[in-house]
Design goal:
The protein has about 250 residues and is α/β, with parallel strands linked by helices. It has helices at about 15-30, 40-55, 70-80, 105-135, 145-150, 155-175, 200-205, 215-225, and strands at about 10, 30-35, 60, 85-90, 135-140, 180-185, 240. It has a single domain, classed as 3-Layer(aba) Sandwich (Rossmann fold). About 45% of the residues lie in helices and about 15% in strands.
Length: about 250
């Protein structure tokens, strides 16, 4: 407990799914947390209440991470509300499985834009704050599909593969400034928002060595570890909570 005491964290897309669990885990470890959201305002508000009930501050920011002006405004708002960001989690993302023959250019570009431009803009603004202080953590939420790909997930797999490469390159660039950049690449997690039908989820769980899907709580220890001093010698690395689906 209190491994993140005195830290300010920003989690994009933090009001649902893995992001929500990470926000609560960070609060449990003593961090004040800013939550970026775009839709599902009620979930954002209830999350803020849960963080405050833990005795930590929470600041909600509505911002589209693909828009440069909104990302800049978000960072300024968090700085005014909580202080400079120590830990940035680039979690905002979307999914839209579909055959490539049915995929529009707009669908492809939206997938790439949310995952890659979003991480770029947030990381750039975060780095601009962290470099003068000589410290900071950036954690990118990747995916096992960035390594293995999957049918009907071509755009998503490409976006996450690009995010993996971005993470490695950024880690090399920012390490001399005392900023550690790493990634978490989850397997299929039962968040309640995944577009897969239940039958497909059950079949996938049966194929895993652990014979179950991951939960959001299964993910949080990886993020806390990388955000805390426990992860001080991790640079450009990826943690893989995936139930044994891939073993890189």
């Amino acid at each position: 407990m209190n491994r993140l005491a005195g830290k300010v964290a920003l989690v994009t897309g933090g009001n649902t799914g893995i992001g929500r669990a990470v926000v609560l885990a960070f609060a449990d470890e003593g961090a004040d947390v800013a939550v970026d959201w775009v839709v599902r305002e009620h979930e954002a508000e209830s999350l803020a209440e849960a963080v405050r009930a833990r005795g930590r501050r929470c600041h909600l920011v509505k911002a589209d991470v693909t828009r440069e002006d909104e990302v800049k405004a978000m960072m300024e708002e968090v700085r005014r509300g909580l202080g400079p960001v120590d830990v940035l989690v680039n979690n905002a993302g979307i999914q839209k499985p579909q055959p490539i023959i049915d995929m529009s250019v707009e669908d492809w570009e939206r997938m790439i834009t949310v995952h890659l431009r979003g991480a770029f803009l947030c990381s750039r603004e975060g780095a601009r704050e962290m470099i003068p202080r000589g410290s900071g953590r950036i954690i990118n939420v990747c995916s096992q599909l960035g390594y293995i790909g999957r049918e009907r997930y071509t755009a998503y797999s490409a976006a996450k593969g690009g995010l993996i490469a971005f993470t490695r390159a950024l880690a090399r660039e920012l390490a001399p400034h005392g900023i550690l950049v790493n990634g978490v690449a989850p397997g299929l997690v039962d968040t309640g928002f995944d577009p897969l039908p239940e039958a497909a989820k059950s079949a996938h769980a049966a194929s895993l060595p652990l014979k179950r899907l991951g939960t959001t709580d299964d993910m949080t220890s990886a993020f806390v570890f990388l955000a805390s001093d426990d992860g001080r010698y991790y640079c450009g690395q990826f943690l893989h909570p995936n139930g044994g689906e891939i073993m890189p």
